[in-house]
Amino acid sequence: MSSTIIAGRFVNPEREWTGQIRLEGGTIVEVGEQLGSPDVEFGEDCYVFAGMGDIHIHARDDQSETQTYKEDFRTAAAAAVNGGVVQVADMPNNPVAPIDDASYRAKQQHLAARNVPIQVTLYAGIGPGTRPLSFAVPYKAYMGPSVGDLFFSTLADLDETLAHYRGQCVSFHCEDPELLEQHKSAATHEQRRPAECELSATRFALQMIEKYELRGKLCHYSVGEGLPLIRAARAKGLDVTCEVTPHHLYYDVSDLTDENRGWMQMNPPLRDIADRKAMLAALHDGTLDYLATDHAPHTLEENAAGISGQPHLDTYGEFVTWLMAEQGFTARQVAAFCAENPGRFVNPYTAPLKFGRIEPGYVASLTVLNLARPTTIRRENLKTKCGWSPFEGVTFPGSIEAVYIRGERHK
Ligand SMILES: NC(=O)N[C@@H](CC(=O)O)C(=O)O
Predict the structure, then answer these.
(1) How far is ligand 1, taken at its centre, from the CA of residue 405, in Å?
(2) 294 lines ligand 1 (CB under 6 A)
(3) Among 305, 302, 335, 301, residue whose Cα is nearest residue 320
(4) pLDDT of 242-273, one tens digit each?
């Protein structure tokens, strides 16, 4: 079996070191100081991370193929590799939602036929009246309306359904449907979906996680006032983790203009500068566990017409270099929220493959960032089928030097 020795500066959450690793048969088989003459050597400007994972994406691909004009599993995978991402978890708000054994299996087969190089974990949807599948999957519950038909009109309905999901892994889109309804005629998108909707939904999600002993996750978190609630829930022993997106860390309502309002629209919406700063601080202190993009591709025409969601997979790794060079995040922190924590989230479903660490036995997927070579994001370099990025024209301080997927170099 052919083996590859890589030399460079490696990073896990607990340490950063210079040395070598050996990849064989798609797996990391050895980690040491001097294993032999290296096949590849990354210089001192580079950081070699375990392959990064984005556990909140919308690949838009299902058996109906009605949304594949804006993305499919192949183009989403290409965008992921372009952004340095080796494993993703795909959301269920498709026209044919995977909500039971049969529809989930059909989506798995559809995915397998696309033959993509990256690992894709599929969420199953929770909607009114659904029941758990007969095998282990991660679930997603949309509390209120967003994009697609999979949502609840009242929190009481969600409670009733969740009673059947005791002990399961459930991710929550936190926006209270009844409060959204009260604000629906406000003037702007962010006024129609104010922070209090997310805050109220957070309280409810935490209650559900406690009541039904869920392995809970809060998606695309954006409200500063909610962070103490999450910390308190953890202090009480609840199993709850939390995502944050690039857009909620980079933009706030002060960035909105008449010209960009269409494509700067997403759910939950951009918040105040204080919220954005609170998200950065909470990613620093570990209250937020995952950098997860909520990659939500739509055509620019659809965004202009009022649909919510931005594409972000292509720029994942470059965005991370901004966190490191301009927001003071250490490589070890990045290894936690981009690799190990997302790996820990999907590993129950990816056996025998283990993602997220540079360690013998883990998959030989790696993301190598170069902190000395800036990148300007340009439309022609994107792989997402929707063909645009909110970061077009932005220069990030670093770039993606290499991506390895199961031992093979893909970039
Ligand atoms: N976040 C969004 O604004 N849009 C998502 C749906 C969602 O995650 O709410 C989409 O599927 O387009």
Answers:
(1) 28
(2) yes
(3) 335
(4) 999 999 999 999 999 999 999 999 999 999 99
